[in-house]
Amino acid sequence: MADALIADGVRIAYDAVGPADAPPVVLIHGHPFDRTLWAPQLAALAPDFRVVAPDLRGYGASTVVPGTTPLDVFAHDIAALLDRLGVQRFVLGGLSMGGQIAMECVRLFGDRVTGLVLADTSPRAETDEGRTWRRALAERLLREGMKGYADEVLHRMVAPHSAPEVQDHVHRMMCATDPEGAAAALRGRAERPDYRTLLSRVTTPTLLVVGAEDTYTPVAEAESLHATLPNSTLHVIERAAHLPNLEGPEEFNQALRGFLAGV
């Protein structure tokens, strides 16, 4: 692990693996996780790609900033980190909230993105009901900490039949997340815009992946996103829920490597 000071005292921790001159791939984790979400992908891609997986601000070993963290702040953090690393153009992947941050990156600096990987995510703006729920959850996490929430959602994040070590990894990531960082992200995500019009004009090659048992962003949502993106392919991973990169890593990695070979 390394870290970089990007702005205003914020340090972003990250893993960077693979040859320095190899094609860059950047992977953005979701909520409430950290960069270790992508451990199977770093191992699989490292021989042939330069893979960068940061901890978002408020998560993992990066600086925790309380208050509200909108998606554009996360996106600017990614850009600043990549500038520090000398990475100008790259394939960008994100899962769940990480996918929404990737969409924001496309909005802000899409000319730098040579390929897009969106896993178990939605381009839709938050609903009124969703905004109320996210703000209430932010307050709950600040009052109670992460464990109760982690216990409740574990088997929506990963299917109950997933490997015990995967369940343990996911639960550990959630419990280790700082409630201040998680709450700031929830408040920011409550205000997210609708990306569908933007994406309908994006011709960047895009891989969409979704777990067949995902109840947060179901297969129907991925199919709608597939119909929106002009140059996309969709891969559904059976017996996986919201985190197919951990639940079915071999299949996920095969789809990812096949996509990267064509970008």
Automatic annotation (TrEMBL):
Residues 25-255 form the AB hydrolase-1 domain. The lineage of its organism: Bacteria, Bacillati, Actinomycetota, Actinomycetes, Kitasatosporales. Pfam families: Abhydrolase_6. The keyword Hydrolase applies. The keyword Hydrolase applies. GO terms for molecular function: hydrolase activity. Gene3D superfamilies: alpha/beta hydrolase (3.40.50.1820). Keywords: Hydrolase. This is Alpha/beta fold hydrolase.
